[in-house]
Structure formats: structure tokens, C-alpha cells
User: What shape does this take?
Amino acid sequence: MSGEGAAVSPRRSVDGSGAGGRRGNLPAVQVMRLIAASMVVVYHAEVQVRRLSPDATLDLGIGAAGVDLFFVISGFIMVYVTSMKPQSGSEFLLNRLARIAPLYWLYMTAMVAGLAIAPALFKSSAFDPPHLVLSYLFVPFPHPVLGIERPFLPLGWTLNYEMFFYAVFAALMWMPLGRRVTAMAGGFAMLAAIGWMFPGLPSPVSFYASGMLLEFVFGMVIGIAFVRHVPSSLAAIAGAMVVASALVAVGVLSGVSEGPERVIYWGIPAAVVIATVLHLEREGLWPRMPVVELLGDASYSIYLSHIFVLPVAAGLLTRFGVLDLLGATALRAMLLVIAVAAGTLAYLVIERPVIRSSTRLLKSVQGPRRGTAGTPERMLRPATRA
Assistant: This one.
């Protein structure tokens, strides 16, 4: 990764010849990916802290907002990369599958093996053939133990939303970008309204009838504004940040974690944050942070691996007396550092080879790819993961 500074031309940053010295590279997005993944890790780390020290738990429900941040990023990136190089809907969807599915399937298979070998360690999992098959196919289905629509690898529920978004985006790629975003906004808003007015719908309708789909729309709108160089002012951004901060404060005080209201308390602020950092990026005000950007590259691996890493790390740290000596706060910090480090190692050792192999396979099937020429692989990786 280049060590160039951030002082790049706003226009060059957008057309791909600036920001970071690589076509289409947006360092600010990589940093936001790391922040989103870290928030999810902190949210799940609290489960371990609660298990080990019930009296030391904190309400860190805001960590769940990392998922909302991921969804906004995903909406933005899909507009950004497809505007750089047009592609057909089938090319787009095959590329998405090649980027997301192999690594997800690998981790889910690891969990299947773990349950078969040591079922006592996976008390919240159970084999149910229809559920397992649909999990691999990204189709929501009630979990046999949890009772809610979660795949066999539970954190994959976010990828079910991602794949639905990608499928709709691909199906409408024959439409001009503005009309496509308008159509998706209307459709997703209708689904959210149906879910709100008619609770208790059967699966998978109940899963997709969610306001969280609107967060992808937020990102797409930001993407259109970015690629079309819609002017923005610091005053407007500052005002939006004030509103976003107020929404986050209300969400935290209200204990928001799940539920339809998260699109208001987490989704809207996430959109404001992404719009703000992209404004700084375009104006050449975003600093280069190569190490942090590398960690952002690893966000998908951090997301998928941390659910395996946290219980092991918590057990080892407790055995070494970290909780008794340094307290719960130090345990949380160390769990975050370990999960990020392990996820980054997994990115270098597992994800990158898997991505190269799946890309080669895709090329051999469909021939030279026209759709993503010039677009860095880092911009094509799944933006979520929670």
C-alpha cells in the first residue's frame, strides 16, 4: 500500500486516480470498515464479559450499530464501483458471490465440524438439515435453537440482507442509476412498512420486511452524490452531525440494540458519518493511515472469525488472571485487540488466497471480466459483515 499523503485533488479522488495512489481506492472507507467491525466485536465481547463477571457488565448495545454502518458502506460501494465501470447484472451478482460466499461457507463449515466433534462447546447450535442447507444458500430460516431467523453461523444474518440487496441491485441494473436507486428506495420502504403494519409474517417475508434495508438506500444516495460531485458544505455537515449525535444519544439512553427503531437511531447517524468522511476524502482532508487501512481490508475476516476467537481468548485471559488483576475494562480491550489481530491474520493467510482462487475460477467460467477492470479488490469485498 502506498504511503502517499492525503492531499489529493477532490476530482482525482473521485475518478480513481488520486486518494491513495490506486485507482478507486478510498482510505476513509477502509477505516470505517475497521470501526464497524470493531463495534461488532465489542458488542459480542460483552457476552464473554457477562459470562465471566456478571457484576461488571456494561450496556454496549451501540456496538450493534456496526452492522448499520456496514450496510450504509455497502450501499455506497455498490454505486461507486458500478459507476466506475458498468457491468451486467449477472456479472455483478457472480462477482459478489465469488467475493462473499467462499469465505462464509468456509467458516460455516468449520462450525459444522466443531459441532460434530465437540457438541458441548456449541450449545446454541443444532443440526437441522433444511436450516443448514438454507444457511449455505443465504435464505433466512428459523434457527432450531435460537428460534429466530438466523443461519447456522448466526452472525451470517447480515449476509442474508447483503445478498438480498445485491440480488435486487443486480436485477435492476438495466435501469439508469438514479431510477434504480429510486425504485429500490420505494420497494424497500414498502417492505419496511409491511413489516411494521403486519408483525408476525411467515419466514422469510418477516426477515426482509425490515427497515434495515433502507440503510443500503442511504449508502446508495451518498454514492450518487459522491460520484456526481454534488457540492456539500461544512456547515451542512456540521448540522447533520449534531442531529446524528442527538439520535445516537437517544438510542443509547433508550437501550436500542435490535428492533425496527435502529434504522433511526443507528442507520441515519451511520449515513451522516459516511457522508462526512467522504466529504473529507473528496476535499483531500482525510489522512493516510496505512496500518489502519490494512485492518480495514481485513474487516470481513475480523467479522467472520471473531465469534470463534472471543470465547477462546476470554478463557485464556481469565486463566492468566487478567480479569482479576486488571478488571473487566482491560479484558474488553484485550479481547478487541486479539480479535482484530486474529482476523487480520486470517485475512492474510485465508481470505486473500480464497479470494484469488474464487476469482480465477470465476474468470475461467465467464472469460475476461469487463465489469470490474480498474476497481481494486478491496473496494469489491463485502462491506458488512456483523
